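Its record is quoted verbatim for completeness.
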Amino acid sequence: MVNQYGIVADVVPYNFVFRVQDDFCQVPKVSYATVTIKVVNPGVIPPTSITCIQTAPNGDLTINWNSSINPTNSFVSYRLRSLQGLDITIPDISTTSYTIPAVNAVHDFYIGVQSGCNGNIIKYSDTLKNIHLVLTNPGNGTAVLQWNTPINPQGPNMNNFVHIYREYPTNTFELIDSVPYATLQFKDTIDICSDLIGYHLVLPNYPCSYNSNYAYDTFEDMITPDIPIILGAGADTSQNGNVLITWNQNGQEDTYGYVIYTFDGNGFLFELDTVWGWQNTSYTYPDNLANGPLSYSVAAFDSCFTSSFPVTYQTSAKANINKTMILVGEIQMCEKTATFSWTPYVGRAVSDYRIWKKQNGNWEIILSTNETTAIVNVDNGESYCFYVEAVFNDGNSAFSSPSCFVVPSPGQPSFHYFELVTIHDEDVILTDYIDASVGIQAIQFERRRAFDGAFEIIATVPVTSNFTSFIDETANVNEYSLEYRTTFIDSCGGLAPNYANINRTIYLSGNSDEYNLVNSLIWNRYEGFNAGVSHYLIYRTLNGSFNAGPIAQISNLDNNQALYSYTDEIDNLISNVESNVISDYSNGAVCYRIVAVEKTGNIFGLQDSSQSNDLCLNYKSFVFIPNAFTPGGLNPIFIPVITNVSETNYSFEILNRWGDIFFSTHDILQGWDGKIDSNGKDAANDIYRYRIEFEDQNGNFHTKTGMVSLLR
């Protein structure tokens, strides 16, 4: 056939040979040329493709393909064929599937499209297989699945995985796994005690999926659960006082639960409890780990059980016995250490032991060791909990029983009170009150320095009773108030970090008004009494010694008052008003002392008083001698007004103008009444001479002479 262009058209190439003669040459020349022409057969339809092969539950196979396009109406038929002898002609171009009943075997299918001149051309697709599943029951509690792939290599629209479905119970399908396309077998572990189980494969594909046949058999679970591996047995650190046992999740998915075993008092294993659920792999219960080491084992059981009573489940063998660790701690108070020892973990290979410390709510690992003893540092007065963690080679771990304690502070007294400081003879007596029953070694007394305000140690005094005293002979009590504090050295020789209360002495100062005979006093408040100061007592000297009773009492209405004052009018000391002789003090000085008296209610059951330094106000010697007197009149006695003189070595004489002694005395309080000592008669009105000899406060002797008129 020649087309409009003069080219032969057919379905196969044709070769044509042409002979050419050259007439212009003297010698004729003949040459040949070969031309190949491809003859086209009009109306040939390209091959279609099989999209999927599906197997129905009854075993029928349905082959699906893409519909052909017939632009020149040259389609004749589809030819569905297999290598196993199938040859089906389908004249309807719109038909895209065909079902073959009950094949139940692997067949190789391909489909052709018949078209062209008089249907003389058939174009065939690739060959594809139906997926045929073969199910084998080896009788050991497993199901073995084997199958074929539709084509190798994998088609462009096929999924990379084959999905495996299990049917149990009837008409209930569960996707149990997916395997790569090239995988051709699968083993399923039976977790159903005994029943009919079916399997079915699906290969997702576009536009439709490949399905295998449905294969069934009666299977029985004959595989007991795996023997559990205990991952750890020890303290549950999140729940104080509980034991925690953990194990691996069993490899048999039909595991129903686990049985926990421990030893009874006779050393025999018994069932402690049952944990239900395949994925539940821990057990917690209250027990005292310190009673151990405690031993545990675990077994797994599956869903298969007997119909007898009591019900017996199919159970694995017991896991290796695991024993908990018992931690024992001992405190070395003075060394500030704790020594720990623990029983080794039994049942698993231990890579190392780690010591955990809990302090102030925080956990930390403080050391790692391969030994079963350790020494750690602790602080007095701190609260701790310690655990030992056994770390196994696989990274799991278990904790020991806890060891929790408060580290005692060595020699901590139940009370410590700096009781008193008081001044005596320019020394300061300090007294500390402490609970000596806890082994206090010594009291450390400290005094504040005046030049920089820092405290310095002045004495460390051994403790022999609850009261410890020290006399500070180096203190300058007459210049300022002194502050003291105390702390103690405990039974371990350590200095306590805290001090007792501060005590502050009373510093008394003042001045004198010699003319008006008035003394002004001022002092600071006493600090240190637990109950505070009730009042202050003021004492004054009498002939060189202090009065038995105070001359005044000042109430302490305000504990925060810094300074106190008092004015003493000493003219009331005159014992002879007429003679104006002050005789209530010696050596020309009036001395004072302040005593602070504590309130009642001291929490230590004590009540004390503290005295100040002694303040002496010196007066100069003073002699005033009248120049006349009138016996029996207004001024009947002639007596010098004398202050600040010694009563010893005192002499007072009256002489007439011829030197005769009319009167003589060594009594500073005695004056002349105008009578003559030798005869007791009244002396006549006249002018007489007096002579007075005395010793002042500094030990110097003085003589005063003069004239006095006697007027009657």
The two ends are 200 Å apart (CA to CA). The domain at 508-618 is CATH 2.60.40.10 (Immunoglobulin-like).
